[in-house]
Amino acid sequence: DTAVSQTPKYLVTQMGNDKSIKCEQNLGHDTMYWYKQDSKKFLKIMFSYNNKELIINETVPNRFSPKSPDKAHLNLHINSLELGDSAVYFCASTPRPGSSYNEQFFGPGTRLTVL
Amino acid sequence: AQSVTQPDIHITVSEGASLELRCNYSYGATPYLFWYVQSPGQGLQLLLKYFSGDTLVQGIKGFEAEFKRSQSSFNLRKPSVHWSDAAEYFCAVGPRTFSSNTGKLIFGQGTTLQVKP
User: Which of A78, B5, B15, B76 is the most buried (most CB within 10 A)?
Assistant: First the structure.
């Protein structure tokens, strides 16, 4: 009955590889997000999708490509991984931006280590 | 520019002591305000939130926070800290109006709470 789930939990890979992280929410929310938490624990938004439409695209290298096959899923594909991509990536969801309940529900995170 | 500042990077308190974690924000208008907690190796869990009304809000695990508009602050408090409260605490703000609202949250840099026995 997990609300927001991410796979995998840990991902260790070599520089230059391509990898994907998957996120699913079973809360019926319209909007999903990807955040990156760096080694200093600073959290920064990367992308957001509302009903499969991209609504936030922060200054993120185009090696990162989000994909939302439906409103319950938001995947993150990363091409040509670099050392600096090592971080914890969090997925989150919210019912609808601007509603009275703007709370975001977070997944457990995916720790990506690039060697 | 929109920003959230948590002035204390690291705080250590004794178990049973009171706690206050500071949060100040800079935002165009009064935002929605949140406190999240992140236990080691875990995701973020919402402690409490302020949207409107009573400026003193109660949350889970015995936490409360007070919104002070004049000071642009939303400090988190707990009267008596338990060892299990050791974690990372994040203050965050988000927009109220849908016209500009993508639901984007801006987080502070976090405060690490250590609890001494």
Answer: B76
Band the pLDDT of A97: cuts 50, 70, 90. low
- pLDDT tens track for B10-29: 999 999 999 999 999 998 77
Residue B102, pLDDT above cutoff 70: no
Q: Residue B37: give its domain's CATH number.
A: 2.60.40.10
Give the CATH superfamily of A4-114: Immunoglobulins (2.60.40.10)
Binary contact (A90, B97; C-beta < 8 A): no
The whole domain housing B60 covers 3-116
For A:89-108, CB contacts with B below 8 A are 90, 92, 94, 97-98, 100-108
Domain ranges of chain A: 4-114
Q: Which residues in chain B touch residue A25, judged by CB atoms under 8 angstroms apart? A: none
Q: How many domains does chain B have?
A: 1
Torsion of CA B105, A108, A13, A46, to 10 degrees: -10
Report, as an integer, the average pLDDT of B31-51.
Answer: 91
Burial of A40 (0-12, 13-18, 19+ CB in 10 A): exposed
